Amino acid sequence: MTTYKGIKGFNIQTVSSDPPAPFAGQVWYNSTSATVKYFAVQASSWSTGDNLPVGVDLNMGCGLQTAALAFGGEDPGGTVPKAKEYDGSSWTNGGNLTSGRGGGAGAGTQTAALAFGGSPSPVSAATEEYNGSSWTNGGNLGTGRYNILGGAGTQTAGLAFGGGNPNATNITEEYNGSSWTAGGAMAAPRSNFSGFGLQTAALAAGGAVSSPPFSGSATSEEYNGSSWTSGGTMNSGRIQLSGAGTQTAGLVFGGDPDVTSTEQYNGTSWTTSSNMNTGRKTLAGAGTQTAGLAFGGESSGAASSNATEEFEGGGPATFTVGTD
Fold first, then answer.
1. Contact (Cβ atoms closer than 8 angstroms) between residue 287 and residue 245
2. What angle do CA 22, 25, 27 make, to 5 degrees?
3. Burial level of 35, CB count in 10 A (0-12/13-18/19+)?
């Protein structure tokens, strides 16, 4: 009979707790849980989700893959106030924003969301809060911004950073649930980028780190609640991308020119992952590094897209034999 030792040259190790830093292919028996486990790198992939009812780009989003919120943006008729809720399988109508706008940012969850900035107006400073059914006005940004500023945090601890007014800015503002106050300035003016994370642990990735004409940057910055420092450099520089996750487990996707490219961040470095099925820029994102969601955006031919895609994240993970 073939044995594990006969194949690998050594027996399965018995341990009372899982190894703190296992290597790919390692197998062990956990005597405490009485289970055989192994450590492997799981493949990642994008799959098609339910289409938005209407194509929209420069839209905003927040929440999780199974409880996401899409709001605002532009369709062929101009800016829209519409909001849609995603339950992991389909989109349904949510409450409309007080004012239609695109190119702003969002934060929070499906039932406690925050929308801020955007255009027209020509540059909006408006903030709105969502309770799962309707939007109400919050405190205005100190500086109105559009051209895809960064958004992170929660409804009561939000973060707005970068964006255009009309040129790229390095302005950071923190929200306490009623008003915005100044935070630490970004290292460089940045617009048309991806931002996500928490108010005290945010990430800004890619975008235009200059005034027009725009050029796609591969740099990233990390915020600790008071100041920004340089993060890892992406493999692909681009503008008008989107993202999801946290400062130490981030995900970015889409953008111009690499409209299908996906990368994952571990807090230090970026690695390439599975490409999107439908290439887009000026799209919105939600979710986590291992369960992301991409929706809307501008597809080839400058058409507003209604496509939704779900990301199942790859990366290293521990599996239990017989249950995974």
1. yes
2. 70
3. middle
Instruction: Tell me whether residue 76 is exposed, middle or buried, using C-beta atoms within 10 angstroms of its C-beta: 0 to 12, 13 to 18, 19 or more.
Output: exposed
Q: What six digits make up the tokens of 267?
A: 């807090």
Any residues with CB less than 8 A from the CB of 181 and at least 6 apart, and which? 142, 173, 174
pLDDT in tens, the chain (324 residues): 555 445 544 578 899 999 987 887 889 999 999 999 887 767 899 999 999 999 999 999 999 999 999 999 998 888 999 999 999 999 999 999 998 999 999 999 999 999 999 998 779 999 999 999 999 999 999 999 999 999 999 999 999 999 999 889 999 999 999 999 999 999 999 999 999 999 999 999 999 987 655 679 999 999 999 999 999 999 999 999 999 999 999 999 999 998 999 999 999 999 999 999 999 999 999 999 999 999 999 997 778 999 999 999 876 678 888 655
CB 172 within 8 A of CB 184: yes
Please report, for the chain, the start and end positions of each structural domain, with discontinuous segments joined by +: 4-42, 47-312
Instruction: Write down the pTM of the prediction.
Output: 0.87
Tokens, residue 13: 């190790």
Please check whether residue 244 is in contact with residue 251, taking contact to mean a CB–CB distance below 8 angstroms.
yes
What kind of fold does domain 47-312 have according to CATH? Neuraminidase (2.120.10)
* Three-state DSSP state, 311: strand
